[in-house]
Amino acid sequence: MGWAIALHGGAGDIPRSLSPDRRLPREAALRHCLQLGVSALQSHAHPLDVVELVVRELENHPQFNAGKGSVLTTDGTVEMEACIMDGKTMRCGAVSGLTTVVNAVSVARLVMDKTPHIYLGFQGAEAFAREHGLETVDPSHFITPENIERLKQAKEANRVQQDEKSEVLAATGGSGDSQIGTVGCVAVDRDGNLATATSTGGLVNKMVGRIGDTPVIGAGTYANSYCAVSATGRGEAVIRATVARDVAALMEYKGLSLQEAAAYVVGERVPQGTAGLVAVSASGEVTMPFNTTGMFRACATEDGYTEIGIWPTEQE
Amino acid sequence: MGWAIALHGGAGDIPRSLSPDRRLPREAALRHCLQLGVSALQSHAHPLDVVELVVRELENHPQFNAGKGSVLTTDGTVEMEACIMDGKTMRCGAVSGLTTVVNAVSVARLVMDKTPHIYLGFQGAEAFAREHGLETVDPSHFITPENIERLKQAKEANRVQVIAQQIDYTQPIKQDEKSEVLAATGGSGDSQIGTVGCVAVDRDGNLATATSTGGLVNKMVGRIGDTPVIGAGTYANSYCAVSATGRGEAVIRATVARDVAALMEYKGLSLQEAAAYVVGERVPQGTAGLVAVSASGEVTMPFNTTGMFRACATEDGYTEIGIWPTEQE
Asked: Could you mention a single GO BP entry for this protein (chain A) (predicted)?
């Protein structure tokens, strides 16, 4: 049993034709965040601190759909949400509707640590973050030209991106990488302590106030004594399938292995093209299944295994 | 296989000494809502319509913690949330942070039926409800004197009416924590009342659930509980429909509603076994209850609190209306 870590920068219809100027920075970011997380685990940081650290880094990276670089609502604004959960104690924290706080995952952590609640939304969450001195900025900080363009394309297509079946493919529009959603990280230490964290700007052109799977405990984020899971993809599909909870439930109630449980949920419980996840088990296993064209992902285990990828590897 | 319906008006530390003027109106409301639901099922209404109808009625009743009669936030305001789910299609809708809409469950239904989303919160949810012409009122409509009093008591006790710090819920409750739970209920004793909900199944095995609440007394502004979290307070699939109540944070951690269905599917437990296990073993004592029906028309209403306002009926004639455990339990 050793430590293990996995992280993702979103699953979606990522075309193999993705241009190097869009692919290379993200691969570099995945590599960088993985190394950050590995170093922290090697220094015996608690997995809760590891996942928060890694997700903060992913939030700050403008090319992932979280924090800076979040996709825009139909009003052209940013509404961010995040979630964090500790497998051993099952304490958790979640936030939705943040507009000025630089790191949503840290607000979620504070909700978990400093309040009797689990989940705070919108103005209440913003006020709480300010009371606790978290870094806030002008909302324009989070908005990138790429996302202004994505919103424009989505409106021209007159549909929410990641809608039904063929609409999914049609809606990807010119750049093709418009399906990117969510960042997340899961980690386990040598003692079997598990943690997960997920963060996102949500869905391009979403209705103001729309909440996705990320802050819904059991849907996009979940950890208990069996495993830690962070999911990504079409939020509504991930919610219906209670993806993160089901991976753990299959392990506990049906005795499946981490890999079997995760593969089953992604393969059989959500529609094709809608989801991916990263997960680690208490015994240090790691899995990163997805049923989309690709998923920005990276993982490492103490025994030396490392993987960084976007599309399925040849064995998959 | 016949139809079945169950509904609740909240689980909590409801003392047996509850005065008749507080008990009788609620029992009457449970009876009335049960009859509404039964009549609808007998008229072959779809379970989604049945649960929405019943929950709207419970929301309108000022003595349950939903809609009018919702408990107050720490600012003395009302923030309502609700959720609805269809077992067959697994379509669902949820809302949080409503302040002027009379029936939160109907907003959740509209989110499910009229948007590509599942969950809308706060100002976005309010705007959506208005755009669709749902009935709205001044926020003061929802505030009752009892709830102003409850908030006052909670502030005097200087704690949220649940355990103030997050304790390791994987461990059994220690005696001193348990006494904090009882202490936190305050003078009136019925301050733990939370949430209303309804589950129904028709003869064809179509399942539906809906839950609605004002949340937790003295909650932080913006606090979201288990009710709108699919899989926590509300869940339905082809196996069963579940609506949970109690301490929201505990229900979320234990993914109560999802786990009942998962135990049936993944472990082959019966509805009653699954529900009893979740309420008995997966949430701390004194924190939760639920109502659930299965595709084959079974019904169960377990709770690990002092009481749970509840009612159920099945097509073969079984009826139950209660608050405290029956003698067999």
From this structure: proteolysis
Chain B residues in contact with A110 by the CB 8 A cut-off are: none
Give per-residue burial for A103-117: e unless 16+ CB within 10 Å, then b: bbbbbbbbbbeebbb
Q: Is B24 exposed, middle or buried (0-12, 13-18, 19+ CB in 10 A)?
A: exposed
CB contact under 8 Å between B230 and A216, yes or no, is: yes
End-to-end, the C-alpha distance of chain B in Å comes to 25
User: Which among A206, A225, A245 has CB closest to B255?
Assistant: A245
CB contact under 8 A, A96 and B220: no
Residues of chain A found within 8 Å of residue B118, distances taken between Cβ atoms = 211, 235-236, 239-240
pLDDT in tens, B77-134: 999 999 999 999 999 999 999 999 999 999 999 999 999 999 999 999 999 999 999 9
Give Cα A97 distance to the centre of its chain: 16
The H or E element containing residue A69 is none
**ipTM for the predicted complex:** 0.93
DSSP B257-321: HHHHHHHHHHH---HHHHHHHIIIIIS-TTSEEEEEEETTS-EE--B-SSEEEEEEEETTS-EEE
CB B150 within 8 A of CB B188: yes
Sheet of strand A286-287: strand arrangement: A221-223, A227-233, A275-281, A286-287
CA B106, B109, B113, B115 dihedral sign is positive
Pairing of strands A92-98, A119-121: parallel
User: What sign does the dihedral A32-A37-A38-A43 (CA atoms) show?
Assistant: positive
The residue to which tokens 């009935």 are assigned? B135
Ligand-binding site membership of A297 (annotated): no
Segment 70-99 of chain A within 8 Å of chain B by CB: 88-92, 94, 96-97
Give pLDDT tens digits for B173-228.
443 443 344 444 433 334 556 799 999 999 999 999 999 999 999 999 999 999 99
Report, as an integer, the average pLDDT of B255-267: 98
* Residue entry with tokens 């093209």: A273
Name which of A298, A183, A268, A196 is nearest A233 in CA terms: A183
Say if A202 is an interface residue toward chain B (CB within 8 Å).
Answer: no
Contact B204, B36 (CB under 8 A): no
How high does pLDDT run on average in chain A? Answer: 93
Asked if A162 contacts A177 with a C-beta cutoff of 8 angstroms, the reply is no
Q: How many CA atoms lie within 13 A of B18 on its CB side?
A: 23
Q: How is B197-265 classified by DSSP, letter by letter?
A: EEEEE-TT--EEEEEEE---TTBPTTEE-STTSBTTTEEE-SSEEEEEEE-HHHHHHTTHHHHHHHHHH
Length of chain B (residues)? 329
Looking at residue A157, what is its pLDDT? 87
Residue type at A2?
A: G
Name residues 142-161 of chain B within 8 A of A (Cβ): 160
* A163 has a chain B CB within 8 A of its CB: yes
Q: pTM for the complete prediction? A: 0.93
pLDDT tens string A211-267? 999 999 999 999 999 999 999 999 999 999 999 999 999 999 999 999 999 999 999
